[in-house]
Design brief:
Elements (H helix, E strand, L loop, with lengths): L3 H11 L4 H17 L6 H8 L3 H7 L3 H19 L10 H18 L1 H13 L1 H12 L4 H11 L9 H21 L8 H14 L2
Helix pairs in contact: 2-3, 2-5, 2-7, 5-8, 6-10, 6-11, 7-8, 9-10, 10-11
Length: 205
């Protein structure tokens, strides 16, 4: 899971496309993640990519379109891999331990990009379209969570996929905000506490 962005960068490097388009995509991904979407102008992208600003508009209708073209394949790969590597033969405690440690590692490793995603869902209609597909599309995250619920009868079966997702992701996101945004040091037992909170929320009748 933690290799999603690395895999995408490698795919982009090896993709058969015009050199100018590839440079624009590679540079935009770095600048958007590091500086934010709104702080990154097409002029900055062009300068760092070593192309003219006209080259950007040759391949993309707008800066929003450029962002959407970057988000789509990354979100699709995250969606396809979010639960695909889970061992459903593990008991619920082992499962939650794996999800918490693996997903926190993924978010921590790719925090700048994750922050970009969270910002753009609020303001960018094209980005919002891909988020909708991520959660609700064919084999989307909510569909995968429904399969997870069915595989573990100890999970409260009256919980909806959205409630289960919130129970799992909520404590993880708060932990990331605590350590990455607010720079509050984590305690040694924070992750074990998070895992117990999630299990309690999922199994409480």
């Amino acid at each position: 899971m933690s290799q999603v962005l690395t895999n995408y960068r490698e795919q982009l490097e090896n993709a058969k496309m015009p050199a100018g388009k590839k440079k624009v995509l590679q540079t935009a991904l770095t600048l958007f993640a590091n500086n934010g979407f709104h702080a990154t102008t097409t002029a900055k992208i062009a300068k760092q990519a070593g192309v003219s600003e006209g080259t950007i508009y040759k391949y993309f209708n707008s800066k929003d379109d450029l962002l959407a073209k970057l988000l789509q394949p990354i979100l699709l790969e995250i969606k396809d891999n979010f639960f695909s590597d889970i061992d459903y033969s593990a008991d619920l405690t082992e499962l939650i331990h794996f999800i918490v440690t693996d997903r926190i590692h993924f978010i921590d490793t790719n925090f700048d990009f994750i922050r970009l995603l969270m910002q753009e869902i609020l303001t960018n209609k094209l980005a919002n379209q891909y988020y909708t597909e991520f959660f609700n599309g064919n084999k989307g995250t909510l569909h995968q969570i429904a399969e997870l619920r069915a595989a573990y009868p100890e999970i409260n079966q009256s919980l909806t996929p959205v409630q289960i997702l919130r129970s799992i992701i909520g404590p993880v996101i708060i932990y990331i905000f605590q350590t990455k945004l607010f720079q509050i040091p984590a305690a040694d037992n924070d992750l074990s506490i998070i895992e117990r909170q999630i299990i309690n929320n999922l199994t409480k009748k």
